[in-house]
Amino acid sequence: MSSLGIVRRLLPEWGTTYGPPAEAPLPAVLILHGSEGGMSGWSHRNAAILAASGFLAYPHGYSVDGNAWNAGSIENVELMRTVEAIQALRNFDACDGRVVLYGVSRGAEHALLVASLMAQEGMEALPEAVACLTPPDVVCGAFDAKRYRDPGDPGWQAWDAKRRAWCWNGESDSLLPTTPIPIEHYPGPLFLAVGLQDATWSPEMTRRLEHRRVANQLPVEAHYYAGEGHIPGSEGENKHHRLLLDFLDRSVPSKINENHTNATHSATLSTA
Length: 272
Prior knowledge:
The chain is α/β, with parallel strands linked by helices. It has one domain (7-139, 182-258): Alpha/Beta hydrolase fold, catalytic domain (Rossmann fold), CATH 3.40.50.1820. The chain has 6 helices and 13 strands. It has helices spanning 42-52, 80-90, 106-120, 203-215, 234-251, 255-271, and strands at 7-11, 15-19, 26-32, 56-60, 73-74, 77-78, 95-104, 129-133, 141-144, 160-164, 166-167, 190-195, 221-225. GO terms for molecular function: hydrolase activity. This is Alpha/beta hydrolase family protein. Keywords: Hydrolase. It comes from Pseudovibrio axinellae.
């Protein structure tokens, strides 16, 4: 069985990207991790999956003081730095100029905020699309891995409502915890997915995001995974990736994916 293969390419001053060994530039996906931090490996693993599917994938680390042994914190994270990363990715030789944001959990919150605030301020070069797994519909408080406790332990909390997670141009007063994410401002395609057994954030948060988009006649597709929690299991994740890749193929079609699909289709016809 043939494979697209995966190669690493350095995005100067930012970090590594993953993609197929294609000479032609490709649409890119900027991946935003959750509270597990950028060095945990999960966002790099997600990048490898997208790379094997024909996209240039860049796992963007944004947690504060994180490393391979400590997830770091999500506190006073400057969202404009992610805007700069989007532009750097657009200008990267391996990228064809199109960039999608994909975030999981706190990364989904991050993606929604960046796209919404960019659109709200009338910034050019918005992300071509946004995809989210287990997103909240409001701004959440700061998270610090060093203070994390398991549910049930004394002092447990998922995040600290008194501390601020995000900044926009150095300002955080408009991003206080429980503030609704202004997703009505972003005009592009939006993909939402959540497990119906999510015990971290209620699936109703995703439903509210979907309803707000529909009410404003904005493009949205939402998927609700029966029996799945905050992070889907094997069956749920396989389904999620099929739906996500279909969304990406429609939002930012890749020539390498078109060629691969056509070749597979021709081989199927020839052996039928």
